[in-house]
Specification:
Elements lengths: L5 H18 L2 H8 L3 E6 L2 E5 L2 H23 L4 E5 L37 H12 L8 E4 L6 H15 L5 E5 H14 L2 H9 L3 E5 L8 H16 L3 E6 L11 H7 L3 E4 L5 H14 L7 H10 L4 H17 L6 H8 L13 H12 L3 H5 L5 H17 L4 H7 L5 H16 L5 H10 L5
Parallel strand pairs: 2-3, 4-7, 4-8, 5-6, 6-7
Antiparallel strand pairs: 1-2
């Protein structure tokens, strides 16, 4: 099999996907194989790129299936190697997808597909504003947050929006890794002028993973001049990183200053209600119909670090159930996720659990506890719920206020101070609050 060029590679990948659909169930295909991408091919071997949370499992459990399907797709024995996102073809192996030009935008990354929560509202609003008004809103826009919370999604959503509505504006998305590789190749090939033109003649530049500039002196120098050239000519820059500009290690001060010159917006990990929305959306997208809310709730409570980890956990649970002919259940989810995401020894209650327990104590329905009711017993119950939610759940004041009747964070703070005063003075009602606190899992 001669080394394919990119168009032929895509055709090969389509044939392989068709064969795979005949080999496995729809659930297994959507959960484990649909996220794969073709990375390259050479004589007797196909390289498939897998997200980090899938790679090991796919390689171990579906490797033989991939090889069988690849043999049928090519008409000869063909090995399949599952590689990670950093893999690049050695130069003597022919064309590589990663070196064939600008990195393409993923059409799935849109603003409509992004689930907005308390910790992502500002970043989402800023990204949308930039997409609607490039170079007229926030320039540069710097988005930071831990891995997997949606930075790449927002960057590419900007790119997709501008390409659809930007009246011909040129957009380019690139990781720092791709920028560095391209720059070093240009130096080697003595084609730096062409490299500079490819980045400095566009209208919107989206750069992912700025933390990887650290320690790369020549890359930082080139990126600095690219940044300045675009900024001075009124072009839009959007940059992401796993930390804010002032915490980037070994990045030149002049670059950090430029990153901070516009708007710096943080993306926080999603809270429980947002995690549930994300899981339901992913289940609908992958046509997974057998997972009930109780199972999704179990996953959402276990996996709190990032959207990527959350979706990966859902895939693991569904695939595990499918391969064993079982139904996804909360018990099965706990079993599958136990090693990767062990349950905390004393899990925090949710705001809804606090409201429910307070309601039971006071003989009120949860809906009454959160209602805008000024009767004194109801007000006291609501204030106790706000106090306990702030003490026990780990949620922010705005989130607590939103979950308890859509109130402002200042209302939660006032309620907390009132209940705290009752406890300090051991006044009427203090024993009820202390009893509730103990039942909800935190002794006083």
């Amino acid at each position: 099999m001669p080394t394919p060029v990119p168009d032929e590679l895509e055709s090969l990948w389509e044939r392989l996907r068709t064969e795979l659909r005949d080999e496995v169930s729809e659930v297994t295909f959507h959960a484990w194989l649909a996220p794969l991408e073709v990375a390259g091919a050479e004589e007797g071997r196909i390289y498939l790129r897998a997200p980090g949370h899938l790679r090991g499992w796919v390689d171990e459990h579906l490797g033989a299936t991939l090889r069988t399907a690849a043999g049928r797709a090519t008409g000869r024995p063909t090995d399949v190697e599952v590689v990670d996102s950093s893999w690049r073809r050695p130069e003597d192996c022919g064309h590589a997808i990663a070196e064939s030009g600008p990195e393409p935008l993923n059409p799935k990354y849109t603003f409509g597909q992004f689930v907005i929560g308390t910790g992502s509202h500002m970043a989402h609003a800023a990204a949308l504003k930039v997409a609607e008004m490039p170079s007229q809103a926030y320039n540069p826009l710097f988005i930071h947050g831990r891995p997997g919370v949606g930075k790449t999604h927002l960057l590419q959503a900007i790119g997709n929006y501008v390409q659809l509505h930007g009246l011909g504006l040129a957009v380019r998305y690139a990781t720092v890794e791709a920028f560095t590789s391209g720059f070093l190749r240009a130096i080697r090939d003595r084609s730096t002028a062409g490299f500079k033109d490819s980045f400095r003649t566009i209208d919107v530049l989206l750069v992912d993973d700025a933390q990887f500039l650290a320690g790369k002196e020549r890359t930082m120098e080139e990126f600095f001049h690219t940044f300045d050239a675009l900024y001075e000519s009124g072009k839009q820059l959007v940059i992401s990183s796993d930390r804010p500009p002032w915490e980037l290690p070994d990045v030149e001060a002049r670059l950090r200053e430029r990153f901070q010159a516009g708007l710096v917006a943080e993306l926080e990990a999603p809270d429980l209600p947002v995690r549930m929305v994300i899981l339901r959306a992913r289940a609908r997208h992958d046509a997974i119909t057998r997972v009930d809310d109780a199972t999704l709730d179990t996953i959402a409570r276990r996996v709190t670090s990032s959207v990527r980890a959350l979706e990966g956990a859902l895939i693991r649970v569904v695939a595990y159930a499918s391969l064993r002919g079982a139904e996804p259940t909360p018990e099965l989810a706990r079993h599958v996720l136990e090693r990767l995401y062990p349950e905390p020894e004393s899990a925090r209650p949710t705001v809804d659990e606090v409201v429910s327990e307070v309601g039971r104590e006071f003989g009120l329905e949860p809906s009454v506890v959160v209602a805008h009711d000024r009767r004194r017993p109801h007000v006291w119950a609501r204030q106790v719920a706000m106090y306990l939610a702030r003490e026990l759940t780990g949620e922010s004041l705005p989130t607590i206020g939103e979950r308890i009747g859509g109130r402002r964070h200042s209302t939660v703070l006032t309620a907390h101070r009132r209940v705290e005063g009752v406890l300090e003075g051991r006044g009427d009602g203090a024993h009820v609050v202390l009893s509730l606190r103990e039942r909800l899992g935190r002794p006083s």
